[in-house]
Amino acid sequence: MQRAARSLAARPADDIEIKDSGEVAAELELDRGAFMEGSTLDGVIILYLLIAAVMTLVIGFAALVLLQRSILRHMAATRGAPGSGAQLAERSRTSASASLALVAEDPAAAPSARDRTPLFRVALAHTVAGLAFAIVATFLLLILSGMELFPVRTAMVTWAQAWPTVLVLCLLVGPDRRLQILIVLGYVSMIAIICVLAQIRGADEIRLGSLTFPGFLNPVFYWAIESAPYVFLLLFLNRTVRAIGPLVLVFVFILLIGGHAATTALSNQPILETVVRVTTALGIGDYAFWLVISIGMLAAAWPAYRCVAVLRDRYAAKRSSEFLMTVSTIWLLSSLILASSLTREQGAIGAVAAFLPILTWRAVLAVGLRRAVNEARARPPCRLLLLRVYGFGRRSRRLLDLLGSRWRLIGSIDLIAAPDLASRTVEPATFLEFVRGRLARLFIRTPEQLAERLATMDRAPDPDARFRINQLFCSNGIWREAVSRLMAETTLVVMDLRGFTLARQGCVYELQTLLDTVPIARLVFLFDRTSDCVALYKVLTDHWRQLDVTSPNLTTADTTIRFIDVTSSDIHAVRRLLAIAETAQDQ
Q1: Which residue among 293, 361, 499, 507 is buried most deeply as judged by most CB within 10 Å?
Q2: 451: Cβ–Cβ under 8 A, 6 or more apart, which residues?
Q3: Residue 465: helix, strand or coil by DSSP?
């Protein structure tokens, strides 16, 4: 770079321009040198993954806030759409033959779902696949480094490489703290066993400066070193941005690589001279370095978008799911970290070999999930309609997270789209339509559009044996008709009435329509201390005396409506819902 500056300064052109060009070249070299200092391939990967994760968190939060506002704006813009069905024709009504009985259950004391759910089988498949990744990665690390495969050493490296499996399993079980703690404790217990084996084998002491640590702590120190780069995963795995995290992370990471490639190109003498001449002529020599980075990122924008579009298309074609995209991103990043280590030992060969573990992981996972997927396709799926009181986003999101980790292994979940659950239900296609300013195209405005959307709702399992969340973007004029149509076709209706008052007229309409449309054996209401139970009882009992003449509840023998108290725990309520679903399937 300095030679380029001197050669430019020696040319017999305009003295002032030659001086300026030399200064620009020298400054450009200094900027690039500081930027690239210590930037071996492994350093670049780790650095850019960290930057991409931070940017994903920031961009994800901002994008979701804008998405929520956009949903509200489009809902308001479509108010009073034609053909809404908002005012239903009055029909003949009569009283039910038996009195309505409302029974409140304590979910902790009530029978819960049997633990023979597909969750264990899916978790086992991910565990085995993660161990397969770790075993292959360990052999590559030790063999390519010329190290012997001693038992304790091999176990230590393998268990450290399997660390992402803990993250995957914690994502799989959802916000169930008890299961998450058990998963972490199981992993830590294995580290403790390896420490005991290291002590038995007489591991050497660890010296860090003036400090000395016992040799049996070798596995702990090694795990801490190997797991440190995974801290950035906690950023893009944040529950709020997780739905769009893989898309944003891939896009940003490719942009950063494009900027890095542009700065690397400055080591080429002709390119450096061209940049110096152009920026000097334009009078922007002070910003030459950042201009080069910007051009590199701009050039990478189209490939980055195409990669995101490929993820969207794979999701639309049911070749992937939002969970598989997140999990695949975790293991892909693990492969990049592994590549950074192997590159130091074997150069390009090590970088290429680093992707053998992820190929092994994908093959083992496909085999492990095959039985669960085939069973999910064979049995009649349970369809859950989730209704809720809007405005209690935190509660609704936690409930949906728990339902998503369990119910989606036995059937799909339907709901009306709203800002409160946007961060959990946004799909790749929906997010890209929002980014492109086409979110309005997803909103249903007419009965014809509603019928078309209902006919195309996804009821088949994804490749990870999980069913999807189907959301309908409805105008304020047609949501009532949409809810009524969904009620008639569902296996179980769960209505979250936390925060319910008589002022929630939309909820009042839904309660009345449920009694007119759905057998009460398929109704479950959730409540807590924030629910106005007196008003709720009045709405239900009053409407029970004036049911639609076509209501399936007019002559039902069992007139008991289940109420589940979720004051103390959501997870117990979810387990109770699964037990109710099991009973419905057995019948």
Answers
A1: 361
A2: none
A3: coil
- Answer yes or no: is pLDDT of 86 > 50: no
Instruction: Label residue 119 exposed, middle or buried (CB < 10 Å: 0-12, 13-18, 19+).
Output: buried
The 8-class DSSP code of residue 87 comes to S
Single-letter amino acid code for the residue at 374? N
- Provide CATH 3.40.50 ranges for the chain: 84-113+380-586
Q: What angle do CA 285, 288, 290 make, to 5 degrees?
A: 140
SS3 label, residue 497: coil
The pTM is what? Answer: 0.84
84-113+380-586: CATH topology:
Rossmann fold (3.40.50)
Inter-CA distances, 76 with 87, 372, 475, 478, 547, Å: 18, 42, 8, 12, 32
**Smallest Cα–Cα separation from 576: which of 102, 77, 66, 112?**
112
Q: What is the length of the chain?
A: 587
Strand, helix or coil at 387? strand
Q: Check the CA dihedral 139-140-141-144 and report its sign.
A: positive
pLDDT band at 587 (very low <50, low <70, confident <90, very high): low
Angle at 573 between CA 571 and CA 576, to 5 degrees: 110
Amino acid (1-letter code) at residue 96: A
The one-character DSSP state at 572 is: H
Give yes or no for a contact between 459 and 412, defined as CB atoms under 8 angstroms apart: yes
